[in-house]
Amino acid sequence: DTAVSQTPKYLVTQMGNDKSIKCEQNLGHDTMYWYKQDSKKFLKIMFSYNNKELIINETVPNRFSPKSPDKAHLNLHINSLELGDSAVYFCASSHRPNGEKLFFGSGTQLSVL
Amino acid sequence: SQQGEEDPQALSIQEGENATMNCSYKTSINNLQWYRQNSGRGLVHLILIRSNEREKHSGRLRVTLDTSKKSSSLLITASRAADTASYFCATGDQGAQKLVFGQGTRLTINP
Q1: Which portions of chain B are predicted below pLDDT 50?
Q2: Does the beta carbon of A5 lie under 8 angstroms from any beta carbon of chain B?
Q3: What is the rounded CA–CA span in Å between residue B53 and residue B60?
Q4: Residues of B with CB below 8 A from A97's CB?
Q5: Sequence-separated contacts (24+) of B62-68 with Cβ below 8 Å
Q6: What pLDDT digit, counting tens, does each position of A59-73 carry?
Q7: B32, B40, B2, B36: which is closest to B19 by C-alpha?
Q8: Which of A18, B21, B79, B85 is the most exposed place for a label (fewest CB within 10 A)?
């Protein structure tokens, strides 16, 4: 069974569109994260939720809105997509909100044309 | 801002040789972690070393931490083709709840 699963794996869309990426974890973890990996493989945290509550928001544009309906799910909605949003987005989870031993999903490669 | 920086950026060795990757960071940390990323996949946690530890082992992996030099190294012994991947160090800042990653070392093991 996949521990952290995110969908879709690939997302190709036009500038200006709105899109969502879904993430689910079956590890019973309290904390979930969204990370963005750019073309140079630099991985940067975007958001962190602990038990459905936002605990980290790393100066991400308002066009990005995370939503956590329960502690096993953390979705990412992106409005008005821009070329610079093209990247690989990773969902991750950890047992506690201390950033230790993260379990990552397989990533969503977003291409904005 | 980026915290860890790995060195070298790319490393290519023969199967069976040992691979050493280094990581330097800038601020005080609570722990340092190493992750592996195979091409097109998510990151996999390898090992965590706390700021009061100097060395840790896990199978063929050996991690050292020198907090006075703000640096860590990851040694993979007796490398295998399956070890081909990118390796990232990540630091957990004291008092913070986020993990900050470096840009990784691309390791290629040649058969």
Answers
A1: 1-2
A2: no
A3: 18
A4: 97
A5: B63/B32, B63/B34, B65/B32, B67/B29
A6: 789 999 999 999 999
A7: B36
A8: A18
